[in-house]
Design a protein that fits this description.
The structure is a single chain. By secondary structure, the protein is mainly α. The radius of gyration is 20 Å and the shape is elongated. The protein is built from four helices and no strands. The longest helix has 35 residues.
């Protein structure tokens, strides 16, 4: 069985963490906290692009990525349920016919 894109993202994150001289366990904790392939890829990009100086900076960015993802999920849920409410209000009723 081949590697999934999640596995590739996970390995890239671990490589980025180790390349900065940090323990691989820290990378594993980051990946577990981030949870999704997209979030892991964003963190990997941050590690290569921003060059953080401490584990605290990296952890802060992880929290920011998670918060942004959670806001996006909530916005999508809100849009979905608003569309359902609109469908309900705009439905054809027997007395309208």
């Amino acid at each position: 069985m081949g590697k999934t894109s999640y596995d590739e993202a996970y390995e890239a994150l671990l490589a980025a963490v180790v390349a900065r001289g940090l323990p691989p366990e820290f990378g594993q904790a980051l990946a577990a906290g981030l949870g999704t392939e997209n979030a892991i890829r964003r963190m990997t990009g941050y590690l290569y692009g921003a060059r953080p100086r401490s584990m605290e900076e990296i952890a802060d960015e992880m929290v920011a990525i998670c918060e942004q993802r959670d806001r996006w999920v909530e916005r999508k849920k809100s849009e979905y349920y608003q569309a359902k409410v609109n469908e309900f209000y705009n439905r054809v009723r027997e007395d309208d016919q």
